[in-house]
Amino acid sequence: MIQVKNLTKIYFSYKKTGDFLKDLFFKEYKKIIALENISFEINNPEFVGLIGPNGAGKTTTMKILSGILYPTKGKINILGFTPFEKKKEFLRQISFVMGQKTQLHWDLPSIDSFYLLKDIYEINDLIFKKTLSQLTEILNCQELVNKPVKNLSLGERMKMELIASLLHNPRIIFLDEPTIGLDIFSQEAIRNFLKIYQKEFKATIILTSHYLEDVKKLAQRLIIINNGKIIYDNSLNKIKKEFSNKYLTIYLEKEIDKKFFEKIGEIIFYQYPKIIIKINKQTLAEKIDFINKNIAYSDLAIEEEKIEEIIKKILKNSFSKKTKS
Ligand SMILES: Nc1ncnc2c1ncn2[C@@H]1O[C@H](COP(=O)(O)OP(=O)(O)OP(=O)(O)O)[C@@H](O)[C@H]1O
Ligand SMILES: [Mg+2]
Fold it and tell me: Mind listing the pLDDT tens digit for each residue in 29-87?
């Protein structure tokens, strides 16, 4: 469905020296390697979270995959097409939504833009009406389509953007920070919608977001990029399994010396009667057994490490590898 092989993207921007003649004839180019030799495949309709820090290369990847930008090197095959050739049959099957940009006419009600898209994509009347009513229903926004876009709140506008980009029933959807700037309720509404949409329409969705809540709730697979390179690509469950530590919170019945707990794991917090210890997942069962045999407690709870922490760890690892090499 999506095959990306050895994709590299280099941007050239030129530095201005301020000297008009010099700038005109001897442009000094600066090379920015936005993507360096990345490869991945997506073979089934799945929800993929593409994450990484600012400037990692996420938007560049999405732009190349959707045909907006040329790659500098590498091969990309999406549904049998090469994206930058921008074949009509390719564009009909994909969609690209950018949280920070609008594709709607500012002064007109969204419904007018929807009709325009209907013509562009040559969507049949019946299918258009059916899709529109399905989408507005799941997003609970039937009345909003008649309001001029400029009068909509950011969250309301995002709903309209999503409808606009899904009317032609694309098989592959690129979502670049669709929840940026939205309040938690609107974020939740968009998330719920995307979840239902992906299930119902069996679409492949690639999502970038700095809100890890989006990724946690939606993505089945995570591709983590940093500095233009893929540093991790695996299912969310596998990432959790591989990297997650456990946090044990114990309420003690008797005060015990801190030293004793250092044998069990890393002490995160201790103020009698409460202690929190970080434990490697592999040794959890054995440590609990030890605690049960040796410590009197009134309560014990086990918590998973948060995905935020896990991702930070993966990114940190990649930074330290880089400085070593
Ligand atoms: N048109 C451009 N010309 C020159 N450099 C660019 C251009 N677009 C992006 N870059 C650079 O390429 C790198 C990757 O940018 P990109 O927008 O893909 O990052 P991102 O992962 O989407 O970041 P963010 O999380 O901030 O959106 C950055 O160093 C950026 O400055
Ligand atoms: Mg970006």
Answer: 789 999 999 999 999 899 999 999 999 999 999 999 999 999 999 999 999 999 999 99
| 70: enclosing H helix or E strand | none
Amino acid at site 221: R
Answer yes or no: are the C-beta atoms of 8 and 37 closer than 8 Å: yes
CB atoms within 10 A of CB 267: 14
Instruction: Give, using CA atoms, the residue closest to atom 11 of ligand 1.
Output: 34
pTM (2 decimals)? 0.86
Closest CA to 168 of 209, 227, 123: 123
Could you give the CA distance from residue 51 to residue 225 in angstroms, rounded to a whole number?
Answer: 6
Q: Would you say 45 and 203 are in contact if contact means Cβ atoms under 8 Å apart?
A: yes
3-state secondary structure of 145: helix
Instruction: Give the separation between CA 231 and CA 236, rounded to whole angstroms.
Output: 14
Q: Strand pairing of 47-51 and 204-208?
A: parallel
- Span from the CA of 101 to the centroid of ligand 1 (angstroms): 15
Task: Report how far ligand 2's centroid is from the alpha carbon of 55 (Å).
Answer: 7
Query: What structural domains does the chain harbor?
Result: 2-240 (3.40.50.300), 245-304 (3.30.70)
